Amino acid sequence: MGVGQAIDIYVAPTDASTPPIQLTNTSRHTYLISWLPSSDGFIVAQDQDGNERLQLFKIKLDNPNHFEPLTEPNPNYYIRGGQLHPNGKWLLYAANMDMSTGMEIEATWVYRHDLETGERKALAKPQKGAYYFPRLNSTGTHILYNRKDLNPAGYQLWFVDIEGKHDGEIVNVGDDKKVYGSWFPDGKRILLRAETATHFRLGIYELASDTVQWLIDDPNRNIDSVYAPFGTSDVVINEVKEARLMSFIMNIETGAETVINLTHGNLQPIAPTADGSWIGKYYGAHQVTDLVRFSPDNVDPKAFKSITLVNERISLGIDDLIPAEDFRWQSVDGLDIQGWLYRTKLEPRGTIIYVHGGPTAHSEDLLDDQIQFFISQGFNVLDPNYRGSTGFNRSFTEAIKVDGWGGREQDDIRTGIEALIAKGIAQPGKVGITGTSYGGYSAWHAITHFPFDIISAAAPICGMTDLVVDYETTRPDLRPYSEEMMGGTPTQVPARYHDRSPINLVKDIKGSLLIVQGLQDPNVTPENVRAVKQALDSASIEYQLLAFDNEGHGIDRPENLKILYTRLVEFFAQSFTDETHE
Question: What is the pTM assigned to this prediction?
Answer without folding.
Answer: 0.94
